[in-house]
Structures are given as structure tokens and as C-alpha cells.
Amino acid sequence: MMRFLQVLKLEVDPQLKKRLATESLFICASHPTLIDVVILHSLIENANCIVKAALRESFALSSPVRAASYIANDSGPELIEACAASLARGDTLVVFPEGTRSVPGKEPKLHHGAAAIALASHHNITPVCITCTPPALMKGISWYQVPERKMCISVRAAPDIGIEPFLEAEKDLGRPIAVRRLTQELKNRLFAQAR
After folding, report:
1. pLDDT at position 149, please?
2. 3 state SS of 192
3. From start to end of 58-102, where are the E strands?
């Protein structure tokens, strides 16, 4: 609808679009705007994602969240297991490793959950960088503040992060070190263009 109303231009990396139609991916995405999950899910037929547990109690969103069988973020080991099971079923799993929208101008801080999921599932990570120009629908910008010109949201994939070296690091050095290294690699790939 936003595209039809000419308030949004969406640019999607053609290679990523092709992969989303043919592969089961573990997508770890940057999260600048309120509509990132809507955009990604519009591109993916078999999408699953992690949602805030509170959404299961939300009057407006509890029914859709439960009907879609999205994974609630209210548990530790069970969350990792549920995500690994989703990937094993062939779902494309979408995770925002920051846990919330990015704060413009601040160094991004990634949680370790995405790396733990990758190690538990033995699944490569597809980093997806989402950008929005001019800035809109971001933290610190109210949803009703319409930019002066049409928003352009770009969705690009960085090269996949192969899981094998991190599984080796886990064997040699333990899971906590492997998780930290994988999280740092993900951060580097997701935000390399922003530096």
C-alpha cells in the first residue's frame, strides 16, 4: 500500500530476492525502521521470526502472532531450540540481533542469541542490511512524521557467514568464545557500509 501511495520506494537486492524464493535462510538483519519485519516477510513465503513475548498478550496482535506460530523471546534454551527446529523444518528465520530498532548515530550493540542459534542449528547466517533514506519510522522519529520526499528502503545481503569455522572454534575454545566471535563477525558484515 505504501508503494501504491507513492510514499515508499523499495529496492531489494535481486540475488537476495532469488534466494528467498528458493532457499531456507537464517537471516540476521539490521533494524532501522518500524516496518522492517513487514518488508522482509512480504518477500518470504515460509517466514518465521522471534517476537517479544508481550505481543502474545497484546489485544491487537496476539491472534496473528499465535496463528503464525512465531517464536516468543521469553525463554533462553527453549528459544534457541525452537529457532533451530524452525530452520530444520525449512523455514526462513528472521532475527534482528539488536533486539530492537537501531538508534541513529549510536554504535549498534548485538545480542548473542543469533550466534547461539547459528551454532545450535549448524546453519550459515545471511546478514541483511536494511537502510532508509531519508530517515523515517526510526527511533526518535514519530511514525506520523512524514519525510519531505519519498522514503527509499534498501534491502541488501552481505556475503553469508559460514558456520564451520565457528563450530571449530566452539570445539577448541568453548561455546562462549565462539558465540562472541560470531557475533562480532555478524556486526562487521551488517554495519560495514555504515562506517
Report:
1. 86
2. coil
3. 71-72, 92-95
